Please model this.
Amino acid sequence: MHVDPFIDPHPNLTPAVLQGLGWLYLVLSVMNVFWCARVLKQDEHVRIRLFGMLGKGVEIPRAASWAIYSSILATIAFMHMSWSSAEYIGKFWLSLTPDGLIESSIDSIVANPVSYFVLSIAGTAMMIFFREWLVKPTVGWIMLNVAILFMALSMTDYDFRQIVGKPDNVPIVALLYLVGGFTWLYFFHAVENDRRLENWDGEGAIPVLNNEDNEKVLVWPDLVYAELICMIAVTTVLIAWGIVLDAPLEEPASSAKTPNPSKAPWYFLGLQEMLVYYDPWLAGVVFPTMIIGGLIAVPYIDFNKVGNGYYVFKQRAFSVITFLFGFLTLWVAMIILGTFLRGPNWNIFGIYEFWDVHKLVALNNVMLSELFWVDLVTPITGFAPEYKNSDPESVKTLMILIREAPGFIALIAYFTVLPPLMAISCLKTFFHRMGFLRYMVFTHFLLMMAALPLKMVLRWTFNLKYLVNIPEWFFNI
Amino acid sequence: MTEEKPTIEEILAMARGQDGGGEADPPADDVVAEQSGTPEQSESSPAPSPASDILAAARAQDAAGDEEPAATEKQPAPATGVSDILAAARAQDTGGDAGAAGDEEPAATEKQPAPATGVSDILAAARAQDTGGDAGAAGDDQPAAPAAETAEQPAAADSAGGERPSVQEMLQQLRQTDGATADQDQASDTTAPRPMPTRPAAAAVPVAATVAPGDLSRRSVLGAVVLAPLQLVATPFAAAWTALTAATTAMLLGTARFMFPNTLVEPSMTFKIGPPSDYPPNSVSAKFKAERGVWIVRSTMYNAQDQIVALASVCTHLGCTPNWLDGEQKFKCPCHGSGFYISGVHFEGPAPRPLERVGLKIAADGMLEVDKSKKFQDELGQWEDPASYVNA
Model:
């Protein structure tokens, strides 16, 4: 029952892992039994013909497939629990093999910031685009199953377990499932409301979901009972959590030794990711302020009169898309990246990849001023904005400003040219309905938000470190 | 003399009536003027429009108390608002004081220009007026009866009227006592018995107020000086504030004391790190990183000269401690992935400038000596400074 640590210090499978996975599969199986019962109650049938082997085919209840799936899961659970002795572990087949094709391909996708970021944007876009298909209960249920199966299978990998099973990260995993669940719930309501509003003749009360179940209920016993149950549930979870997972205490702090990797609390990992691309005063001060200020400003820049007070998509498409982009891809995806993918030396590692301190990632970064002067202008004109230490301050200042002029011009153009440009093109309606001031506030917040992914793209494509780099004044953008 | 506390309207009315009634009924300032022997000047104030009148009256009365009444009686001044009304009320107040004090001992009276500061003054004035009337009635043994008509003596009133003083009154008393000693010294220098129609400071302390006329001057000064500190603990309220102030002061001083510890347990900023031969070419020594926070680096990378430098082990991005990776020949920060060459120059990640050097020299005994109190930044051209490196 014991795996020798000298033979394999990083065992992918251990008896404890198999036992735990057995319970997980059992829970999943029971969940699917309930789902099966639900489907059976709806009494839908599908005709299967098995490529003509069954002649005209046999009509079977749809629940049958779920029943088969549930029994397979139960078998797998039984297998995990009963085969979890040492002699079987080597032969166990339901796991991701260490050098497997699946693992390496997934790693190569997520460990590359470009593909990771593209994937997270594409995921958000597809979720919005295919929302009507997504919110079908069967689709939602299948996606939940896939997510749990993915987690269960990945748990057979040692390095994945090290990252996900860290006491710090366990609640984050739970949180990701919550984010997914609530996003699905939003779309479920929104799609239904969209459908109802399309068929609405405009008379009477607005026929949204929220208006149906707003009958009055009593505080006692309805609310108090619900609160009591929630209270007990939360207490139970917290106690269980406190007993099962030890607090992730580390060695005493030392000013001379920084843990490698050194991670912020999970909710600040988005900020830490920003700090990779921006100077501390921007990523740590200006952007957080902008995020809070922007959220406060939302009610004031929102001119859309409809869609208030109920879940809806079509009436508030722009707001919803902007929010989902800012929240899911720029915040949650950054938290996932920071929690699970950032390893020693703040390199990006795949989820099944060993955290090698000596992993070499070439990140030779350049400044915009270097790109502009060293590569472009100076070879042609011979002029270089340089100064000597002995030069007077005025010359130094002038040279610094000339040196960084490309960055300043680009930034000023970004914030002054783009808003009017958008006002006459893609955001014409917005400009007309908002008025000048509100429109300017709105576009500047929008451009600020877009500045983060833009800078990331610049970093990945041109290795660009800073647009404006004045180390003499501690000023970088 | 009113037994009731006057309302603000009454104060206003009094203030108005005072200047307007220069002829009609003899108010306090007239009394003062008469006592100072210059009645004609006090009569010379006519009755102009109300707002400026109030102020003019107020100023005039204050001035009459302070200086020569004849000279200052005519000073006009623009009325500005409530403060003027207050000033007027107070002036009336002080005028009455002058009357009362002048009766007893003109030389001992102090000048007390009281700037109106707020509602509290109205209250104080009102209360003083009220109870002062009692005082006048009780202690009026002088023939100059008109003075007692409007006399206000808060302190005397305390003893006579037996009313509890308000916070503002206590503060006023404290202020008066402070000012009293100086003013009384001044007053006793000028031997001429000038009429000083203001609150007698001595009267603020009940003991001083009951001193018999005659050699009151010196005794009241002495009494005020001796008893002034006692006022800090005279009432539970004053004692509480005194205690709070003392405790806060002690705490602040104690905090300030922390800035000057008796002993410094941190290691000295300058320390020796052995002879240059300890450091082979193209090497990074992390020997002093944990305790001193410096790497000793010998390389030719920066300017092709074989130099030994001491690099501070603080990332120039956000201050984490990078690690030297010998295989990769770079310093790498675990927080945001900044990378630095062996020379300390940044090349990857978000760090905007090179690592900082600290001072390094060869001491008299041939040992290398690091001086962490000096730092040298490449972007400011300070790495050219000979104090920042030692040629190996």
In short: The two ends of chain A are 57 Å apart (CA to CA).
